[in-house]
Amino acid sequence: MExxxxxxxxxxxxxxxxxPKVIEKRLGIxxxxxxxxxxxxxxxxxxxxxxxxxxxxxxxRVAEDGVVEGRLRCxxxxxxxxxxxxxxxxxxYVPSSRLSTAWNGDLVLVKVLKDGGRxxxxxxEVRLILERTNTTLLSRVEVKEEGYRAIPLDDRLLFELExxxxxxxPDLSQAAGKLVHLRVSRYPLGSALPTAEILQxxxxxxxxxxxxxxxxxxxxxxxxxxxxxxxxxxxxxxxxRKADLKSRLDLKKECAVRIGQGAAISLEPTESGWSLGxxxxxxxxxxxxxSPLDGEARRRLRSFFLGDAVLPMLPELNGxxxxxxxxxxxxxxLDPTGQLMGYELQPSVIQLRSHLEPRRAQxxxxxxxxxxxxxxxxxxxxxxxxxxxxxxxxxxxxxxxxSQVLPFEGDEGVWGMSVxxxxxxxxxxxxxxxxxxxxxxAQHWQQLGLPGLYVSQPSPEQTKQDDWLRLLESLGMPLxxxxxxxxxxxxxxxxxxQVQQLESVAGRDILRYMLVSMLKPCExxxxxxxxxxxGLAPYGHGILPQHRYGDLLMQRVWHWVFTEGRDRKTQxxxxxxxxxxxxxxxxxxxxxxxxxxxxxxQEDLAVLLPRLTQQEALYFRAMNDLEGLRKTxxxxxxxxxxxxxxxxxxxxxxxxxxxEELLVEGLVHVxxxxxxxxxxxxxxxxxxxxxxxxxxxxxxxxxxxxxxxVEVQVRGVDYYRQQVDLDAVVAAEPDPEREDMGLNAADAPxxxxxxxxxxxxxxxxxxxxxxxxxxxxxxxxxxxxxTT
Length: 788
What we know:
Blueprint: H1 5-9, H2 20-27, H3 33-48, E1 52-55, E2 58-61, E3 67-74, E4 80-83, E5 92-94, E6 107-114, E7 123-131, E8 136-144, E9 147-152, E10 161-164, E11 179-186, E12 195-203, H4 211-218, H5 227-234, E13 249-259, E14 264-270, E15 273-281, H6 292-300, E16 304-306, E17 309-311, E18 324-334, E19 340-356, H7 358-367, H8 376-394, E20 400-402, E21 419-421, H9 426-447, E22 454-456, H10 462-474, H11 489-500, H12 505-517, E23 523-525, H13 549-564, H14 595-636, E24 642-651, E25 654-659, E26 665-669, E27 678-679, E28 682-683, E29 686-687, E30 694-697, E31 703-705, E32 709-718, E33 723-730, H15 736-740
Parallel strand pairs: 10-12, 13-19, 20-21, 26-33
Antiparallel strand pairs: 1-2, 3-4, 3-6, 4-5, 6-7, 8-9, 8-11, 9-10, 11-12, 13-14, 14-15, 15-18, 16-17, 18-19, 22-23, 24-25, 24-32, 25-26, 27-30, 28-29, 30-31, 32-33
């Protein structure tokens, strides 16, 4: 199994000596000599560098002052910073002469050489490359005197690679001038260039290459399974066997319907409220630990839902292709208001009444609105709609519907918030039910004291929150927060409630889309932490074991609880608890799992949690990249057309406009405003700079203000960089159009402070929207600068 230096170093903690055999187990290394030898070479190298120390054949991590871990982020001009995780930590400037062959995106250990000052970042040098991010690259092939060279498409990778022939492209002349996907076979050594081999020849340019191919190659996403994995999937049972029914609840009489990729749902009204069942495919019964399928799922970690395409974590499992299949059911009792009163987790078997795509489910719901005698599927959809309304009212954070079509995973998905297309509101109801099931599973996990496997979501960057709040304030929707306070879930409820009151559908969509765009990907944690998008804690993922490895592992642990769980403190105790029911909450004061199982799970989680978090972030970037490419492709075909949009950000070099309906962001650069010299307002002879929310014409006094509705023309599009250049058609003047949008901001303050954060880099680091650091003037970060 391949491993990175950071994964190896994660095996060391608490200043304890660790034996190589323990490290092998934590990294999932088998006893094959090449793998063990590779690990030993890495340990010896780390010892020579002083990162590890060796004592009697065991190793310990050495703590070193002034050494920090960070992700290298470089600009197209060659300026690089090591970005540390956490709030309030400084970025370390690394000169190009001290990169030690590290590339943009690499995880590195940096030795701080100079402390920072008031206008100067700390300066350091790369001590060790912990993890290479760019193992594959999108590049153009050029022919030079020295041979064939690959030039990375990402302009922050300022180097060439020497191309070597291979079985895919034995004759490199066939790839000359083409766009290719390549694998780095050797990183730079001294003055020697890095080398690479071509994996796939894509086309003449990014514009002529399929967008899904671009994204899959850019992020090195696997699209096919090997023969071993396909054979393992084909060998699994195709139907439920009698032996499988042992110790399972028979729920085949329940009306269960599956909508989209998620679990099946059954729902019946009761005298005390609702009886809700979420029936999760029992993937863990078929995908056992250390099997070929488990190994492949552990490598991929999740399915990628990219537009209409799905890159699955597992091959198709025949056992779930029939109406009758094995499940793990979350059986919940709710009161009439949707409050969860109690629940059980049970191994079960169900008989699906129908498996519907979301759009078809919405059609059936709408077609049966006025039918008095509905069939059981129609009845379930209408009950689901009614329950979704109740659940939405109870959750701390609201759901968001957008006019554009969004991929639907089943629960809150990659956004971390219940976001669904306005044309398929049934997806919102399904997501609400799945979120409730996930929350119940996490609560039960916590109450049983199982090793942590929770999901949290950090708050958006404060600068992005501030920018969004200032935009709302400019539109007459201020949030009254005391100094130093931060937005809580009820504040977001309040703000989105105000946005919902806007008369303009376009204005509502833009503001809601901007909120979604600033969300961060979810993270897997060993302890309970807040989930921003849902306002829930504890929270976890459990309803998609066929698509997320964390869900599969959780389901596997539930089977351990069902079959091996200790239901009493000691064998002598007469009083036992029902480990499958919420009735045991508050009564379990002992370890539920056998000690060896618990130890095994803790070791697995120590390795898996960081990898699961990294994969969520990768999925987040890939999905946003695909969305960005498809939007810029639309704009390429509409160059020269006129659109209306909202000014969402004002900078010294221009202002950004979010186009109505399309939800595409573009830049109106100040150089395109020919009628006047535009700048931030002057106060006492000095520019307000970051405190401004408008660009003002020096001669005419004409203003382009945050929140204004403006008409623009599409001037140009950079497809791969996902940049849209706009020209202002009509200068922004106070006019009735603003009131027609329902914004009513005539009396809103215009000088609210704007804290402009660092522009996001273009390319692999960009996760949402359009990014324009190409328009900023870059200077040497090691030198102090004055704002003019």
